[in-house]
Amino acid sequence: MTSKRDALTDRPLHVGGHIGGRPVPLDGAEIEILDPTTEKTIAVLHEDSVENVDRAVRAARAAFDHGPWRKTTVAERQATLMAIHDAIMAHSEELSELEAINTGIPAGLTRAFHIQRAAHNFRFFAEYIGQAGGDVYTQEPGILSQVTYEPLGVCALIGPWNMPLGLTAMKIAGALAFGNTCVVKPSELTPLTVARLFEIIGNGVLPEGVLNLVNGSGQVTGSALSAHSGIDMLSFTGGTQTGANILAAMAKGIKRPAMELGGKSANIIFADADFDTALDAALLSAFMNNGQMCLAGSRIFVQRPIAGRFLGAFEQRVKALRIGDPLVAGTEIGPMINAAQRDRLKRYAASGLGQNATLLAGGKDFEGFDRGFFAEPTVMLAPDNSLAICQEEIFGPFATIQIFDEEEDVVSRANDSVFGLVGYIWTRDLERALRVSADLRTGTVLVNTPIIRDLRTGFGGYKQSGLGREGGNGSRAMFTEMKSTIIARGKRSLPRLGLS
Ligand SMILES: NC(=O)C1=CN([C@@H]2O[C@H](COP(=O)(O)OP(=O)(O)OC[C@H]3O[C@@H](n4cnc5c(N)ncnc54)[C@H](O)[C@@H]3O)[C@@H](O)[C@H]2O)C=CC1
Ligand SMILES: O=C(O)/C=C/C=C(\O)C(=O)O
């Protein structure tokens, strides 16, 4: 136990919204925030009502329509984004610890990855807008077709619980960079770091109403936001079913959606791969972030000649993963976010056994502690791809392994999914890597590497993994209106289009 956690348990934080530059009075319905390691209350969330959501959207609307933000110079926006970057970095240790306590994700990872990424998102977009331009075309002398990317308006940004600050910051940084105003709603399970970010930024950095925060459940606060007629777009990261519900709500107002949803990514290991690196990376891809990652390589395919060796080694490595308190150095797997996610793992293990899969590791709660939502990292050998454990997103430390012989067969099994987020390929044969990459129906393909994000590239999914891309030009498409202005210069004869 560390003092930070003890302090929160003794005196839970009270968290609410932040509208028009001011904290919202803490009088909304109370939602208890649990520490998944201790199951104790560490915060009380005061839910923002439908009326508060309306106030937040109106504040963002007024700031967009009448405030200075969308007309600021690139240099001014860059300075603001960098001020937020610096504020996050100045508080990185505190934010890393808070994120680890709230999510159960090992502090080693929140420190090295989540919070660094949260800050880097702001630096990235500051640099991007310094480079990005519009487009100009000419058809004939004197006619200029100009394409510009204009701020879109009020952006509703709904974040997930598996990388709360890092992924929400990606949305905030992108929306602000292109001159928009925002209403942010974090997951009601993990609101602490985003709320802390609002405190850290304070009031001087952005004009009033540009960045607003509402907090609460998806049912009340989230659905009020997604159905609000005053938003211009909504960017969501989370589960596919929730994404579908939000899309249905947005359809009425024809609002622009950006959806980063679930995955069931194939990790294809050919027999000629660098075995040791592929093994290490398979472990990382499936179990990093407690396995709670949309891009997890949770569906492993191994080619037959190396299957026996891989199965033995992988099983051993998974059984050796250090499960524990996310604040203790060296912990590799912390608790699941809540009891429901922990129980999901057991249910899927039972479902796998019922469909003739073989349990290689895990499959039950971790019993090393009397408290906490701990589950054993689980691996099952699946006879084919039709099993529920190979088709459905489990979103936890749960990997399936299938054995394959032919390239054509593994590509077809990899694509046999309603999802299409990421594909991982391990081979020394470049020709094959490029061929398989071209055939995979996924938004991102990683060859001989676990996840590397280059924020200049777009990240997002085919099929039910989402709509739109985050990063670089993908974020620009998401957060701007593309305007075409056609300019004719000098006196010209008009085109004859059926009228004299
Ligand atoms: N990044 C990803 O791919 C993630 C996937 N998941 C998957 O989704 C499943 C369900 O997870 P949940 O905890 O329910 O999170 P979720 O991902 O479905 O919800 C995330 C956010 O959406 C909000 N929300 C929920 N219903 C809403 C609605 N009708 N309108 C507007 N906002 C709404 C929530 O308040 C939260 O801020 C998980 O079991 C997991 O499989 C969960 C988190 C992240
Ligand atoms: O950007 C990353 O590095 C990770 C992204 C992960 C998700 O979007 C997710 O798990 O939802």
Key features of this structure:
binds 1,4-dihydronicotinamide adenine dinucleotide, Ald_DH/histidinol_DH, globular, Ald_DH_CS_CYS, alpha/beta, 20% strand, aminomuconate-semialdehyde dehydrogenase activity, Aldehyde_DH_dom, binds the ligand O=C(O)/C=C/C=C(\O)C(=O)O, 7-stranded mixed beta sheet, 40% helix, 2 domains, 23 strands, 500 residues, EC 1.2.1.32
Query: Rg, please?
Result: 24 Å
Give the count of structural domains.
2
> pLDDT average, as an integer?
97
Supply the helix-strand structural class.
alpha/beta
**What overall geometry do the principal axes of the alpha carbons give?**
globular
Low-confidence stretches: none
Q: What's the arrangement of strands in the largest beta sheet?
A: 15-16-17-14-13-19-20
Percentage of residues in strands: 15-25%
- Looking at CATH, the homologous superfamily of the largest domain is Aldehyde Dehydrogenase, Chain A, domain 1
Q: Can you characterise this structure?
A:
By secondary structure, this protein is α/β, with parallel strands linked by helices. The protein contains 16 helices and 23 strands. It has helices spanning 3-10, 50-66, 74-90, 92-103, 107-131, 164-177, 192-201, 218-226, 240-251, 275-287, 304-319, 339-354, 388-391, 407-415, 430-439, 472-479, and strands at residues 13-15, 18-19, 22-23, 30-34, 41-46, 135-138, 143-151, 154-158, 181-185, 211-213, 233-237, 256-260, 266-269, 299-303, 358-361, 378-381, 398-404, 419-420, 422-426, 444-447, 462-463, 466-467, 480-488. Helix 2 (50-66) packs parallel to helix 8, helix 3 runs antiparallel to helix 5 (107-131) and helix 4 (92-103) packs across helix 5. The longest helix is centred in the N-terminal third of the chain and has 25 residues, at 107-131. The termini are far apart. The protein binds 1,4-dihydronicotinamide adenine dinucleotide and ligand LM24SWP5. 1,4-dihydronicotinamide adenine dinucleotide binds at residues 158-162, 185, 187-188, 217-218, 222-223, 226, 237-239, 242, 245-246, 261-262, 294, 393, 395. Residues 1-13 have a biased composition (Basic and acidic residues). One of its GO terms (molecular function) is 5-carboxymethyl-2-hydroxymuconic-semialdehyde dehydrogenase activity. This is 5-carboxymethyl-2-hydroxymuconic-semialdehyde dehydrogenase/aminomuconate-semialdehyde/2-hydroxymuconate-6-semialdehyde dehydrogenase. Belongs to the aldehyde dehydrogenase family.
